[in-house]
Write a structure and sequence with these properties.
The complex is a heterodimer of chains A (1207) and B (322). Chain A has 1207 residues and is an alpha+beta fold. Chain A contains 40 helices and 33 strands. Chain B is mainly β and 322 residues long. The chains are: A alpha+beta (1207), B mainly beta (322). Chain A: InterPro entries: Sec16_Sec23-bd, SEC31-like, WD40/YVTN_repeat-like_dom_sf, WD40_repeat_dom_sf, WD40_rpt.
Chain lengths: 1207, 322
């Protein structure tokens, strides 16, 4: 796609890659006279501004020059790293002159822009190149075989690369090698290219095809391969690009014959060595892959020849081409629409022809419309092959649960043997950044589980760094102790014993009132017994009136009289006698009269009106108020009062008091308010401060549950937000189970419901959909049409594959067995009984797909494997088969209870079709895999007796499952080896696998070209090898990987088989597991495998050392390996080495291999595993493949592991 | 700690270009130069190939999972100029839509926040960005922003769904009036921010200039309820910038240089909690970065083959106690 154009007949040079922005320098070409036959010349600099959509290039500067140019290059010499305009423009002139310009000065409009000039050359200087390693070195070529090497730091005296070639000829091209800095090549129209070694100061090789038709117009070194270069020919009789390798310089390695007429210029992309531009007299600009000869792209050009073509060094998709019609065009090879790009031409024509739209219709008149329309249909396609620079080689993306998914494409290194075929691995990693947070969260969880709240709080108290923190924890702790109120009081500074002492002290000071009381008591005891008479006065004074009132039983009046007379004590005593009502009235009257400081307190105590205290007390006395409440308040009003006090503190108090409100809320057990209060005071965004809060909240909620028997399930908005924030944090650290544990239950807040759903599924559990009535999301569907008979339930999901994942590595709890549930509700209902285990539904998977996924289960348990049977399974087959997922109309919600919710096309169960088949011995779907850490011994999985009872009878199985079983049996005989189901014994797999090996194995590439055989040329040793050449060694060595992985597959299969949830009776029948036989038989077969007795010859004594060494090494590795995957690998290796031992027994190995093995054994003895690996590679590369393939890869695995583990 | 919990052997026959987990982190989608897209079930450290999707005729550059509320949907984009939307139907994955509206390699696909419906943004080397909106009945409406980036758009990334004005506002029945925005990066060295106008047209809202070479990737940070918007960008020039915007109008963005790497930086990815940035460089290096208390970005981990340690010093923030 054309991006820009400039109307100049000029040579062009892009600014160096470091330069930003991108400039294009143009110097009037010496070869062409323009239409005016003007002899003026100029040097111009344009800026490539791609954000400007027009075709115009922004001119930055013009310098009128007295020279015209044959060649223009822009070197990065002396550029500052910032990329400011700098470097040197080097121009080759007509009369043997080389001129150095300062581009920054040109742009600045400076008059003095020439840095230096030298006219040592004879004739026009057509060839110039800057050394990319030493940018101060410039090579130039002119007539008379003249080649000079210029040092820009010392421009006056050039060097020569050696004696001039004879006969004298013009130098048309010159190029520095891209890999070796002292190698230079020159070429001339006569067709000869000469390679110079500047250290030797002489030509080292001449390249020519002796056709006499190569007229070199272009020369370029391979960007990556030091010994390769291309030459382009201008001759119409031989319009080719030749690719040469100097190591085989007798004839070209490849000839690209894509042009119809002579080639005028070439350019090899530095960004992608598979892109070579060439332009010729056939008016084409082609981009081809010089390594294959394929044309990748033809630039849409006009009919003019291009004489100069250049890649933009900075923007690898951009190139410029100078054509003889006086235009320099800038193109992108990434294709794109040509919309609007022709506009410039049209505009130009319009302006030349004047207004062709006299009627103002907005449309140009027909003559202009025609070319425009044809042009617009011309969508320019991009390169056939994506250029290297858009192929992203690396990536790391976060996903839910703090997981990081990374991949990197490591360059293949051919010489490193077996495991070095390119492995396309993706790593899923757990990123944990908040360790303290996690460990604290962990502790908290443990506490919740173990109910050890008191000691937890005590620990927290001890660890508290601030008084406040200590207080809070003390308050929390009290919740879990007896007599919590009393302890609260103590915390507030009111210890009962202390108080008692204080009172005693106080009373003693007032002359032993203690004694008085005692005496008084004695007196009162005396009085009745004395039985003495007393005088009842009925005089008219107050006493008399009281007496009269009393005598008449008028307590009320009597009390009034007493009060009036300020005889408070009498009044109260009388009131007590007068009954409850009177007492209350009297108390009121008393308080109304009394004015002492503590009256209000007493009032509150007596009247039980704590609300007033709490509402009106001075906030400075909040402690006292709280203490009073703690002492007196009734349980039903207690928390409300604490609450009230807290609220007051929070709303009216200063910042210090505000935080104290937390204590009130703790007493109140008001979690929501505690959260609010805490959040106000703390920075909640920090994980640890959030942890601080959550610790308190969790403990408090537990306390409330214990002490106040309140419904703690109701979760306020704020708390829910904090808890979900907390759960999010935990999840982000990978603690998904913990996150789930802390997520509040029974809340309908959408964010929590969504998070719960996400966590559950992330954990691989079905969401307990039945428990929470809310669906996290309103499911929306991409309707694929097909509203089935159950249109209302089209959202009913189903499970595509059976997935019984033991969770973690716990063995299943006794009695736990898979259920062939018909009803998903039942499945979810079962969940709590077996926490940690995930059930999914029986697969309603149509045949024959179950084989594939089922087999891959074993992959999952067997660690990473390469080998995967690629049986083409037509997806359409699923439709053809009467596949019937169980259907439960009631479970329309079950979107949550399923792993993979997907749209289901409902169809009735085909129970009839299934009924005709005998009940399968075990549901094909019901088996359980061992966790990665499960012991390999199959006996360990023997289920407790009793469990068989839970095996669903066949009739209880969903029809689909039975169908599937049937289909498996049907299908099995047709399949062979690796295509067989998961339940086939490894023994059956093994044979076909062996057969398959050669198919996977890529035979060594036949040597098709002399390049494969290094000639021992000294130069080829000096120069790096061509990396892309497939070396037989590598292809051979690369094979064993799948083979090895296949071995792991067996292993993987064995494990799940060993632990099938089978009633013992099914294991009995002793039938050699024919394909399609009931599963129970095959199991028996598998179990009998290890006990298979084969009489073997002993290993010859002299080789026994091999066995002991290798086995010892594996044992050592096993004991220091930590991850189960490695252990499995090693286990497997140990088994597979039997192949080797067998060969030793049979004495079929060739002496070289035996020798090599002994060498390896010795290097193992000396713990020099890398040496062992080297020997290994040597053996593999020199021996017969079939002889060693069975055990050498395994040996390599062992050595590599040993090396890694450093045992 | 960065520790490998699962090594998935994809069996791709050529370079892998993208690997993305679904919403739950249980499935992995990968794509490669071998023209295939693969989906693996990776729960519990396993790797079960669920689907091997063939349909592209060139290298597949990126994959993107749609939110599960729409079902199991995956979008992929390729050098073959196509965007394919795949969907799981009855346990099988199949092509549900193919978008052929681009004239050159489609380099990036990104689903809009689920609140907006099913909308996919696609950035192409033809310089255009197209927006596919699912309108029901298997129909997709296409809007195209032509000439979004001269000679190519390399990346698109949606802004999180935020209702203007209120931050933690629970939607009260009525559909909130979201302002849809996304960021794009391209070969014109620019990051552009696009906003949907009221008439449904997309308009360039901002141009963010700081890079001196192709912008390889942009990533809008997930919203964590703060008023600040954050975008990470990386470039061919080796620089990674963190752009932040505090004002509500969203017009003032200021860049902060995270780091200048010695090689091209291909990819940036935010953690779900938006506090860690994973940077993938051309030297096959992956580094994790975190903002320290004083606002500086610090490298906390070098990840090599999925393994790495985490420097603890700055990760544990200062506890703010009374």
């Amino acid at each position: 796609m054309k991006l820009k154009e400039v109307d100049r007949t000029a040579m062009q040079a892009w600014s160096p890659a470091q330069n930003h922005p991108i400039y294009l320098a143009t110097g009037t070409s010496a070869q062409q006279l323009d239409a005016t036959f003007s002899t003026s010349a100029s040097l111009e600099i344009f800026e490539l501004d791609l954000s400007d959509p027009s075709l115009d290039m922004k001119s930055c500067a013009t310098f009128s020059s007295s020279h015209r140019y044959h060649k223009l290059i822009w070197g990065p010499h002396k550029m500052d790293p910032k990329g400011n305009v700098s470097g040197v423009l080097i121009a080759g002139g007509e009369n043997g002159n080389i001129i150095l310009y300062d581009p920054s000065k040109i742009i600045a409009g400076d008059k003095e822009v020439v840095i230096a000039q030298n006219d040592k050359h004879t004739g026009p200087v057509r060839a110039l190149d800057v050394n990319i390693f030493q940018t101060n070195l410039v090579a130039s070529g002119a007539n008379e075989s003249e080649i000079y090497i210029w040092d820009l730091n010392n421009f006056a005296t050039p060097m020569t690369p050696g004696a001039k070639t004879q006969p004298p000829e013009d130098i048309s091209c010159i190029a520095w090698n891209r890999q070796v800095q002292h190698i230079l090549a020159s070429a001339s129209p006569s067709g000869r290219a000469t390679v110079w070694d500047l250290r030797k100061n002489e030509p080292i090789i001449k390249v020519s095809d002796h056709s006499n038709r190569m007229h070199c117009s272009g020369l370029a070194w391979h960007p990556d391969v030091a010994t390769q270069m291309v030459l382009a020919s201008e001759d119409d009789r031989l319009p080719v690009v030749q690719m040469w390798d100097l190591r085989f310089a007798s004839s070209p390695l490849r000839v690209l014959e894509n042009h119809a007429r002579g080639i005028l210029a070439i350019a090899w992309s530095m960004a992608d060595p598979e892109l070579l531009l060439s332009c010729g007299k056939d008016a084409k600009i082609l981009c081809s892959n010089p390594n294959t000869g394929e044309v990748l792209y033809e630039l849409p050009t006009n009919t003019q020849w291009c004489f100069d073509i250049q890649w933009c060094p900075r923007n690898p998709a951009v190139l410029s081409a100078a054509s003889f019609d006086g235009r320099i065009s800038v193109y992108s090879i990434m294709g794109g629409s040509a919309d609007g790009l022709r506009q410039k031409q049209v505009d130009k024509l319009s302006s030349s022809f004047g207004n062709l739209d006299p009627f103002g219709t907005g449309q140009p008149l027909p003559p202009l419309q025609i070319p425009q329309q044809t042009a617009q249909h011309n969508i320019v396609l991009p390169l056939k092959k994506p250029p290297k620079w858009i192929r992203r080689p690396v990536g790391a993306s976060f996903s839910f649960g703090g997981k990081l998914v990374t991949f990197e494409n490591v360059k293949t290194q051919a010489q490193q043997g077996a495991e070095q075929q390119q492995q396309q691995h993706v790593f899923i990693s757990q990123v944990v950044t908040e360790k303290e947070f996690l460990s604290r969260s962990d502790q908290l969880q443990q506490v919740v589980q173990s109910q050890g709240f008191v000691s937890y709080c005590q620990k927290k108290i001890d660890a508290s760094q601030t008084e406040f923190e200590k207080n809070v924890w003390s308050f929390l702790k009290v919740n879990f102790e007896d007599d919590s109120r009393g302890k609260y009081l103590e915390l507030l500074g009111y210890r009962k014993e202390d108080l008692g002492k204080k009172i005693a002290l106080a009373l003693n000071k007032v002359d032993g009132p203690d004694v008085c009381i005692k005496e008084g008591k004695q007196e009162s005891e005396f009085l009745p017994s004395a039985g003495g008479t007393f005088n009842i006065s009925i005089s008219g004074d107050i006493d008399g009136l009281i007496t009269q009132a009393l005598l008449t039983g008028n307590f009320e009046s009597a009390v009034d009289l007493c009060l009036h007379d300020n005889r408070m004590a009498d009044a109260i005593i009388l009131a007590i006698a007068g009954g409850q009502e009177l007492l209350a009235q009297t108390q009121k009257k008393y308080f109304a009269k009394s004015q002492s400081k503590i009256t209000r307190l007493i009032t509150a105590v007596v009247m039980k009106n704590w609300k007033e205290i709490v509402e009106s007390c001075d906030l400075k006395n909040w402690r006292e108020a709280l203490a009073a409440v703690l002492t007196y308040a009734k349980p039903d009003e207690f928390s409300a009062l604490c609450d009230l006090l807290g609220t007051r503190l929070e709303s009216e108090g200063d910042s210090l008091l505000q935080t104290q409100a937390c204590l009130c809320y703790i007493c109140a057990g008001n979690v929501e308010k505690l959260v609010a209060c805490w959040t106000k005071a703390q920075d909640g965004s920090n994980p640890l401060s959030l942890q601080d809060l959550i610790e308190k909240v969790v403990i408090l909620r537990k306390a409330v549950q214990l002490t106040q028997a309140m419904d703690t399930n109701t979760v306020g908005v704020l708390l829910a937000e904090k808890m979900s924030q907390y759960a999010n944090l935990l999840a982000a650290q990978g603690s998904i189970a913990a996150a789930l544990a802390f997520l509040p239950e029974n809340t309908n807040q959408p964010n929590i419901v969504q998070l719960r759903d996400r966590l559950c599924r992330a954990q691989g559990q079905p969401v307990p959909g039945q428990e929470s009535p809310k669906i996290p999301y309103e499911r929306q569907q991409l309707p694929k049409g097909r509203p089935g008979p159950m249109a209302g339930h089209t959202q009913m999901p189903r499970v595509p594959a059976q997935q019984y994942y033991p969770h973690g590595e716990n063995p299943p709890p006794p009695g736990f067995i898979m259920h062939g549930n018909v009803n998903p509700n039942a499945a979810t209902a079962q969940l709590p009984t077996s926490p940690g285990h995930m059930h999914t539904q029986v697969p309603p998977y149509p045949q024959p797909q179950p084989y594939q996924p089922a087999q891959q289960y074993s992959f999952g348990t067997g660690g990473s494997t390469m080998y995967r049977p690629q049986q083409p399974v037509a997806p359409s087959a699923s439709n053809a088969y009467p596949n019937t997922p169980y259907i439960s109309p009631a479970s329309s919600y079950s979107g949550q209870s399923q792993l993979y919710a997907s749209q289901l096309q409902a169809s009735p169960p085909t129970s009839s079709s299934a009924a005709s088949f005998p009940p399968p011995p075990s549901s094909g779907a019901s088996f359980q895999h061992g966790g990665p850490g499960a012991p390999p011994s199959s006996s360990a999985y023997a289920l407790p007796p009793g469990t068989t009872g839970t095996l669903p009878a066949a009739s209880e199985l969903p029809a689909s499952q039975r169908t599937e079983n049937q289909s498996m049996q049907d299908q099995a005989p047709k399949l062979e080896g690796p295509q067989n189901g998961w339940n086939d014994p490894p023994a059956l797999n093994r044979v076909p696998k062996k057969k398959k090996m050669p198919e996977n194995f890529m035979p060594p590439v036949p040597i098709t070209s002399p390049i494969m055989n290094p000639l021992g040329d000294p130069q080829s040793q000096m120069l790096p090898q061509q990396p892309s050449a497939p070396v037989p060694l590598s292809s051979q060595a690369s094979f064993p990987q799948p083979h090895l992985a296949g071995g792991q597959t067996f292993h993987g299969i064995q494990q799940p088989l060993g632990q099938l949830g089978m009633p013992p009776s099914f294991s009995k029948p002793n039938i050699e597991g024919a394909p399609g036989a009931p599963i129970g038989n095959t199991i028996q077969h598998v179990q009998s495998l290890p006990t298979e007795k084969i009489t073997k010859k002993p290993i010859p004594d002299e080789h026994l050392i091999l066995k002991t060494t290798f086995e010892d090494l594996i044992q050592r590795c096993l004991s220091s390996a930590t991850d189960p995957q490695t252990k499995r690998k090693l286990d497997d290796a140990s088994k597979r080495l039997e192949f080797l031992y067998d060969k030793l027994r049979e004495q079929t190995l060739s002496p070289t291999i035996i020798n090599g093995l002994h060498n390896i054994a010795r290097s193992i003895e000396s713990r020099n595993y890398s040496e062992g690996l080297t020997i290994h590679t040597h053996i593999v590369s020199t021996s017969n493949f079939s002889e060693t393939s069975a055990f050498m890869p395994v040996l390599k695995v062992v050595l590599t592991q040993a090396n890694k583990l450093g045992v | 700690m960065v520790s490998v919990i699962n090594t998935v052997d994809t069996s791709h026959e050529d370079m892998i270009h993208d690997a993305q987990m679904d919403y739950y982190g249980t499935r992995l989608a990968t794509c490669s130069s071998d023209r295939s897209v693969k989906i693996f079930d990776v729960r519990n450290g396993g790797q079960i190939l669920i689907a091997d999707l063939r349909g592209h005729e060139g290298p597949v550059w990126q994959v993107a999972w749609a939110h599960p509320m729409y079902g199991n949907i995956l979008a992929s984009c390729s050098y073959d100029r196509k965007v394919i939307i795949w969907k799981e139907e009855n346990g099988t994955w199949e092509k549900t839509h193919e978008h052929t509206g681009h004239d050159s390699s489609v380099n990036s696909v990104c689903w809009a926040p689920h609140d907006y419906g099913l909308i996919l943004a696609c950035g192409s080397s033809d310089g255009a960005i197209s927006l596919l909106t699912y309108t029901g009945e298997g129909q997709w409406e296409v809007k195209k922003i032509s000439n979004a980036h001269a000679i190519g758009c390399n990346a698109v990334s949606w802004a999180p769904a935020v209702v203007p004005g209120s931050l933690i506002d629970q939607p009260s029945g009525q559909k909130p009036n979201y302002i849809k925005k996304f960021a794009s990066g391209g070969c014109d060295n620019l990051i552009k921010l696009w906003k949907e106008e009221e008439d449904g047209q997309w308009k360039e809202e901002q141009k963010l200039e700081a890079h001196s070479d192709w912008v390889r990737d942009v990533a809008w940070a997930p919203s964590i309820g703060l008023p600040t918007s954050t975008i990470a960008s990386c470039s061919q020039d080796g620089r990674v910038f963190i752009w932040t915007c505090d004002d509500t109008s969203g017009n003032t963005w200021s860049p902060k240089l995270l780091h200048k790497f010695s090689d091209v930086v291909w990819h940036v990815s935010w953690s779900i909690t938006a506090n860690i940035l994973a940077v993938s460089g051309g030297d096959n290096k992956v580094t994790l970065w975190k903002e320290s208390v004083d606002g500086q970005w610090v490298c906390i981990s070098d990840v090599n083959k999925g393994q790495g340690s985490v420097s603890a010093s700055i990760t544990e923030g200062q506890q703010n106690e009374q």
